[in-house]
Sequence to fold (215 residues):
Amino acid sequence: MKIKSVFSHSFDKYGKVLQGYDVSALLKKLEEKTECPANAVIYEPGDVDLEAISAADFSTNAYGGMPVQIGYCNGNNTKLNCLEWHRGSEINIPTTDVVLMLAPLQSVKNGKLSTNAVECFLVPAGTVVQIYETTLHYAPCNGVKNGEVSKEGFRVIIILPKDTNTAKPELKEKDFEDKLLWARNKWLIAHPDTTEAKSGAFVGLVGANLDLTKN
Fold:
């Protein structure tokens, strides 16, 4: 599996690297106050301590004045498992190198996507990466260096429009995409070999469940 850089032209269709943000205090707080499970991935949509540090800056500049939440995704992961998207960009800021598995939303047809469409990108520690709303993504993966997958895990700041990934609203299906809504502002397609699929998520990923340790 080829791993490209978020600084390469290949990443341009998926997002961009944001410049000018001092995230040192944000990452320091993330490392100090949050755990990094050895055999799992944890996610918190919003954290008051993290938001107190940087919510105003990202709300004003990155989101043009829209309200945001600052949370985190920590743990150890090497697999694709699912792909999700939101109405609005997502910003990722890792404390260590991580790999993001991404694909274009335009390639999803009737809720289905071949995992052959997925590309991998290395995000260096401390990089502020904007993921466009038309980019499919999911939990980060451990970093890779010289062909070896890191075992130290990851901590990643996740910034999104306010209330994203909270409780799914009740709705009456009007469009096919309504079947894919998994949480508030979170549409998701799962690989059949996942906990999400077993819990009722729409099975839309076709092909191998990509794994960085099997390449």
